[in-house]
Amino acid sequence: MPTYNLMINGNAQSVDVAADTPLLWVLRDHLEMVGTKYGCGIGQCGSCTVHVDGNATRSCLLQVSQLDGKSIKTIEGLSDDGSHPVQVAWKEVDVPQCGYCQAGQIMTATAFLENNSNPSTDDIKNAMQGNICRCASYKRIEAAVVNAAEKMG
Amino acid sequence: MLIGFNLFTACKPKAEMPIDISKLSYNDFNAFIKISDEGMVTIFAPNPEIGQGVKTSMPMLIAEELDVPWKHVNVVQGKLDTNNYTRQIAGGSQSIRFGWEPLRQTGATARQMLVNAAAAKWGVDPSECTASQGVITNAAGETMGYGAVVKEAAVLEVPENIGLKDPKDFKIIGTDAQNVDIDKIISGKPLFGLDYKEEGMLYASVLRPPAFGKVLESFDATEAKAMPGVVDVITIGEKARDLLNGEGANWTVRLSDTDKVVVIANSTWEAMKAKKAIKAVWKDSSTLESTDFQDKQLLGLLDGKEFNTLRKDGDVSKAFASADQILERTYESPFLPHNCMEPMNFYANVTDQKIHLVGPIQTPEHSAAAVASMLGRDVEDIELEMTRMGGGFGRRLYSDFVTEAAEISDAIRKPVKMVSSREDDMTTGVYRPAIKYRIKASIKNGEISGYHLKEAAINSNMYGLIPNFFPAGTLENYQVDVAKYDSNISTGAWRAPYTNFLSFAEQSFFDELAEVLDKDPVQMRLDLLQKVKDTDDERIEYSGQRMEDVINLVVEKSGLRTPKDGVYQGFCAYYCHNTHIAEVADVVIENNQPVVKKVTVAVDCGVVVNPLGALNQIEGGVIDGIGHSMYGNLTFKEGMPESNNYNTYRLIRMNEAPVVETHFVKNTLSPTGLGEPTLPPAGAAIAIAINKATGNRLYQQPFIQQLNKKELVG
Prior knowledge:
Helix content of chain A: 25-40%
Number of helices of chain A: 5
Strand order of the largest sheet of chain A: 2-1-5-3-4
CATH superfamily of the largest domain in chain A: Beta-grasp domain
Number of strands of chain B: 27
Largest sheet of chain B: 7 strands, mixed
Structural class of chain A: alpha+beta
Oligomer: heterodimer
Radius of gyration of chain A: 15 Å
Largest interface: A-B, 61 and 66 residues
Strand content of chain A: 15-25%
Shape of chain A: globular
């Protein structure tokens, strides 16, 4: 099996996996980073969202062989201690119900806020509508994004 | 009584404050409580956590009476432990209702034992001592922390009938507590079943029949076996099939009727990928049902005469015979998959010595019993740990995925995790069954003189309490009849079973009745409710007064009596899962389509244990109710589900979620649950508001189909 060298959360990691293995499963099964969640496998739910070169990307659709030279950030790399403003906002608002989709929500929100520091409600809804929350904690996600925008602004 | 002593383990950590309370060594106090020498407390959450918040709220009940600062509490999920815990189940919105007395009693008893131990040390009578916030104080003003006496307290005789606090003295109950797992959730720490891993664990992907009514005939796994990471390809099914005829059958599903092909691999992806390379031949074993076929069956039942009567007051036939006017409407709903964001999965390690099971399950006790029965083992051989669950919604009441994991591990004698793909999850589910209601009411002299509800459902009918919900007790002539069609499609409980659709049907019908009677829909409900306020009918669980209270509250808060131009409001009130709810939906027309902007909710759930969590449940329930009423739809073609992932199955998304404004009726009555009861009224409230906005009544879910068909405005 080929070896792939990945840059994840600033650390060089190497894995021996098939070329078509999605980044999602490399993270979860090979690198023991389970914060990135499997939800649908077809890029429809957003649970597996990570940042690739700063852009929110569905890790379930990203094959490991496409990642040479890319910088990957996962929920585990957002901060060492949960102190990233988006994480803090999520905590202050107490967003989660089951919590399963929230890492993906946080990663989508973080990438979005890095490019839009003063979003309108419509901007937030448009940015976040690709992430499903089956518990429908949407109003708190929205409130947390507003809260985080203030912190980051 | 829930107290049960474990042997305590003495330990003397030297940590200084402030400290990481999860890293301390604790002295076992009882099955619920450990206290460290420093007075920090671990409380075990007994019930499974599916997102309904009981891992936070149930320990709050213990901590309240134990009287410790909530910030000193570290919550740990309890394992399945039938010796020490009762009702370790997540279902029916009942955890808080049933836990209210015993969990507070557990805390109060422990507090009294700590006081007794401190009193003994001081050589004073316990009645001269008080305990508050983890500190015991005697008459002389001397103090002692709980941690200083926990070892002595834990071995004292367990006192009985300890008095509980007056609600006005609550320090924790009624205050906002954050989700106890919040730090792990926001930082991506392992928490869910899918995150669980053991040394040497393999992954299993199960190939199940592509259609209900088909079973495995043969398969060729040559290609799959040659793929990278594949350890083996086996079949399972025989043991689960035997279980269907024995103990635990109620907790399995019809998919167990067939053999299944299982790919065992070194990783999830390798297992899922190899499964696609298996060439399986399936044969028909029973009818391959399609949605139009099922619709005909259900409508045939409604048109027929074969019903079970669940409640009969007076004589509806006579009322209909002498009516001035009759209103009859039929309401229709589709199958729904649960779509938990975390697909079904479970870890099993079956050895000769024991069976270790770990994963997301709402019914650990039943699951352990099913596995024991299936494998011919003692239930004492089983250690079952519940992980946090990525949603439940009823799907994880059924243990089919637990028995699958156990059957696989039993066959290969290795630790293994069965993981379903999203497609597996959606196409081999235990669905909310399609149901149709026909409601008929007679009108005589401007009043409702008779009311007859008929249910035609797939596989199972409404449970016995439901016919006693509103309007039962308010009408002289009232009858509820049910009939079912036995399908080979697996069906089961789905968040607020039956009422999730019945509420829409009945409340829509009442709104239409009010229109026909030229009555105010709110006043019509209030007038009817007067008749149950002093009822002596013991079957009636709902309270006319509490229903009236939520109705008045929602009317006041929603501005229903002061309409705004362009805002169309739909009112409904409902009781289920022991909680009284009224909702008003605000709909506006945008781009020629009705859009739900806001839902005002009035809730009477008694004492609100954790307002922060309660509001989350209420908002989620309302938006979930709207989403599934608007979009939820699983159809079948020749036994095969026609959607298998979110590209073809629509769930509500953030841009479609309205504002939810919640108001509680403030009282000190025993609390009831919130996981389900706000969902059922939501579909009704928006349908009624959409009718106001467009002039069109909705009779079928999902609403989007009807809305898309019609030129609604103008």
